[in-house]
UniProtKB/TrEMBL annotation:
This is N-acetyltransferase domain-containing protein. GO terms for molecular function: acyltransferase activity, transferring groups other than amino-acyl groups. Residues 67-124 form the N-acetyltransferase domain. It holds the Pfam family Acetyltransf_1. InterPro entries: Acyl_CoA_acyltransferase, GNAT_dom. Transmembrane segments: none annotated. It comes from Lentinus brumalis.
């Protein structure tokens, strides 16, 4: 007779940026370094293709909490083990206030369980003053989690909203990699200089390997029988997604 399945306890926690101590940042850095992804072939030296993308607790704090007073994190624990996290920083821009997801990662063994969506839903509900939510990611799962959290279908993504507000959001950002990123795609470039297969990307010079994201994108296309509205993914770039948040 087989033993009964162990009971699973899931807990979601939202904390302000100023409440995160060094031990919590170390735990988050370990989750990121173990499960985020690997470097691609075009990653500059001394980075090695195929090696894990890693981050120390100190660097993590600097990257995802540039303005702690206006930042927060949504954490997911299963049986007291951290399995998912979503950091976000908010700021005003010409057109509203954005809740920008600076990092989203879920442990490999707990993916495809809507944990990423739950994390982002917690962030959105925690910041009712925000009129928009966005992220830059090479992984379609992160983009889909964002649209689900905003109650938007990816097939009906409002590209005109991105086109109207993206540059204003980036210009006002306290997050360095967003403020300095070059926006690329037909939403931001004229037809003569742009690539018609690229729609909405941010050139963040983040050369992570795209094998897993592209495989996931292929599965989404086959399942949905739709074209990916954000266009083709380019090395060193990330999909740029910005969606309006409806008042609760």
């Amino acid at each position: 007779m087989s033993p009964p399945d162990a009971e699973v306890w899931l807990k979601l926690v939202v904390l302000g940026g100023t409440a995160l101590d060094d031990e919590m940042m170390k735990e988050s850095a370990t989750l990121f370094s173990s499960h985020y992804g690997v470097w691609g072939g075009e990653a500059p030296a001394p980075l090695t293709a195929g090696s894990r993308v890693k981050m120390t607790a100190r660097k993590l704090r600097a990257e995802v909490l540039p303005d702690p007073a206006n930042s927060c994190v949504s954490l997911c624990y299963i049986n007291n083990t951290l399995v998912g996290q979503a950091f976000a920083t908010t700021w005003a821009f010409d057109g509203g206030r954005v809740c920008w997801v600076t990092q989203l990662v879920v442990s490999s063994e707990h993916r495809q369980r809507n944990i990423a969506t739950m994390l982002l839903l917690q962030l959105a509900s925690n910041r009712p003053d925000c009129t928009a939510m966005g992220l830059a990611s090479s992984h379609p799962a992160a983009c889909l989690a964002l649209t689900k959290a905003a109650h938007v279908s990816m097939q009906q993504l409002d590209l005109s909203f991105i086109q109207k507000h993206a540059k204003h959001v980036c210009a006002a950002s306290p997050v360095r990699y967003i403020r300095t990123a070059r926006l690329r795609g037909v939403l931001f470039e004229d037809e003569e200089s742009g690539d018609p297969t690229v729609v909405s990307l941010a050139n963040t010079e983040y050369f992570v390997d795209h094998a897993e994201p592209l495989a996931a994108l292929g599965k989404w296309k086959a399942k949905s029988s739709s074209e990916w509205p954000l266009g083709r993914l380019v090395q060193g770039h990330e999909f740029f997604v910005l969606v309006p948040l409806r008042p609760c």
